[in-house]
Specification:
heterodimer; A: alpha/beta; 4-stranded antiparallel β-sheet; 26% helix; B: alpha+beta; Nuclear Transport Factor 2, Chain: A; 2 domains; 25% helix; binds S-adenosylmethionine
């Protein structure tokens, strides 16, 4: 999962003295602060899942296990396997052929929550590089309409590369600012996903690319970034020290997140669902964003935890602001609970 | 119908899919539930699920996956199309293993015995379509893109 600083965000602000200090602001929300901070320092495991749009996923699952017998099944996504550190699935022929996709485990869940079915119409408003788009297409059995929108032109090629490699035909890629969708357009989607740009604090465990080309052949590695990342062994990055955790950034990004969520809700039919997700712990970018939605427009639904993956509820208040009461139905993934990246997700039912 | 300003349903879709079905020996049912779109003005052809249609305010850059680079030729289908739709090819298909497979994956031309007729082929290994090959004078030329050949080299290296 990657986020980007959107246009309109403030420029460089004084960085916090230490990013860990930044994460410590969440101590009141965490059951075990030491375990949380320690987990943020460990490498982030990846998951390879068999692409059901390309052949028999049982057969592909066997190929994953033949490549990596130590891989262990993810209990809540079919034919998905957790890979041990150091495994480079981007080098596997199965990856090149689109038989598998590779991503971080916690990011499977928002897509699972979309609950799309064959023939549905789904809007993925912030889609690049397409990890969740691909999962939604798999849920749809590649039938229906899946609009994969991405504002950042530079990230379109990764999105296109992944969808084409995985053989997704139900997707159409667009390149607009999700906040600028026309007002009064028809409510023509059954579901929407807003996997919003954010401060990405939950990705401090994210992968880092090796300096040398992964194939040892020398020369520049021209493969798309997704391939390069999947080829790269896991190791933790230093927590980010950047403008992305300053109050100014949070305020700007929050306005963007609220704008995106409102537009998505406006495009979904009554009774349809909107998933809001970020990879940050910041309540300003999570519960506060949900709080900006009129409860008469969309209700936040309770979620059932995936087997073996404990969830923490959304927080009711932060920074002196009390949020709408149903934010507790949102879910937080903490890295020390299930060895994932940090993640926030909520499902809204459009009224 | 136009998906956006830049796509229109391809008027020659039926003829093209019939030709592909015949050439590679796949039943037309393989393409059921899909439609072929032509991008304007580039004339690249795209195949997308039948549910793909225009929506307000979201002009499309791409629909589904690329079928061909242009609407004039026959046979030069994209690698993505080969993998998604032509796994079950029964004609113009080459099942490779060993050195011939290795050469195809890394992009080295290789002579085949007996020499197949000239033309485009689905190249398969262990029942899996790998991509498009072109046979000329008994030599198979890989038409995998460069980055994929590179991935294949990496895969071969373990
Ligand atoms: C967290 S990432 C999405 C990850 C993606 N859903 C996946 O699973 O692979 C957020 C994306 O939103 C894009 N974005 C930022 N601002 C946007 C906007 N106003 N409209 C649409 N997309 C936007 C970013 O460029 C980034 O690619």
């Amino acid at each position: 999962m990657t986020g980007t600083i959107p246009d309109g965000a403030p420029g460089a602000q004084p960085a916090p003295s230490d990013a860990a200090e930044g994460l410590e602001r969440y101590a009141p929300l965490v059951d075990d602060v030491d375990a949380f901070l320690a987990a943020c320092e460990r490498p982030l495991p990846r998951v390879a899942w068999a692409n059901p749009l390309r052949g028999d996923p049982e057969v592909t699952a066997r190929r994953i296990l033949a490549r990596c017998p130590e891989a262990t099944p993810v209990p809540w996504w079919p034919h998905a396997y957790r890979l041990p550190d150091g495994v480079m699935p981007g080098n596997w022929l199965e990856f090149m052929l689109g038989l598998i996709h590779v991503q971080e485990e916690a990011t499977l869940w928002p897509a699972a929550l979309v609950g799309a079915a064959p023939g549905d119409r789904v809007l993925d408003l912030c889609a690049a590089p397409g990890n969740k788009t691909a999962l939604i297409a798999a849920q749809m059995g590649d039938r229906g309409l899946l609009v994969a929108n991405e504002k950042n032109r530079g990230r379109l090629s990764q999105l296109r590369f992944n969808l084409e490699r995985l053989g997704v035909t139900c997707a159409a890629v667009s390149n607009v600012d999700g906040r600028r969708l026309p007002a009064g357009a028809p409510r023509d989607f059954d579901h929407a996903l807003v996997d919003a740009p954010c401060s990405c604090e939950g990705t401090t465990r994210k992968l880092r690319r090796r300096a040398a080309p992964a194939d040892g052949q020398g020369g520049e590695d021209t493969a798309p970034a997704e391939v390069r990342e999947a080829r790269t062994p896991t190791r933790p990055t230093r927590p980010r020290r950047s403008a992305e955790t300053t109050p100014g950034f949070r305020k700007a990004i929050q306005a963007i997140q609220i704008g995106l969520l409102r537009k998505a809700i406006a495009r979904v039919r009554p009774g349809g669902t909107v998933i809001y997700a970020t990879c940050t712990y910041a309540p300003e970018e999570n519960e506060r964003v949900l709080h900006a939605i009129d409860p008469a427009v969309a209700a936040i639904e309770p979620l059932t935890a995936p087997p073996g993956a404990p969830l923490a509820p959304g927080v009711r208040s932060w920074g002196g602001v009390e949020f709408r009461s149903d934010v507790v139905h949102a879910a937080r993934f903490w890295p020390h609970h299930h060895d994932t990246g940090g993640f926030f997700v909520a499902r809204l039912r459009v009224l | 119908m136009r998906v956006s300003e830049s796509f229109e349903l391809h008027p020659g879709a039926d003829a093209l899919l019939a030709w592909i079905g015949e050439h590679f020996g796949v039943p037309l049912a393989v393409f059921a539930g899909h439609r072929v779109w032509r991008k304007i003005p580039s004339a690249t052809l795209w195949i997308a699920a039948a549910g793909v249609e225009p929506v307000a305010g979201l002009p499309y850059e791409v629909v589904g996956i690329r079928l061909q680079r242009n609407d004039a030729s026959f046979g030069q289908v994209s690698n993505a199309f080969v993998r998604r739709f032509l796994n079950g090819a029964t004609r113009h298909v080459l099942d490779l293993d060993g050195d011939a497979l290795e050469r195809f994956l890394v992009g080295d031309p290789g002579a085949l015995e007996p020499a197949p007729r000239n033309g485009y082929y689905v190249v398969r290994a262990a029942g899996e379509a790998l991509g498009r090959g072109r046979v000329h004078d008994g030599v198979l030329h890989s038409e995998l893109p460069k980055e994929e050949r590179r991935s294949a080299r990496a895969a071969a290296a373990g």
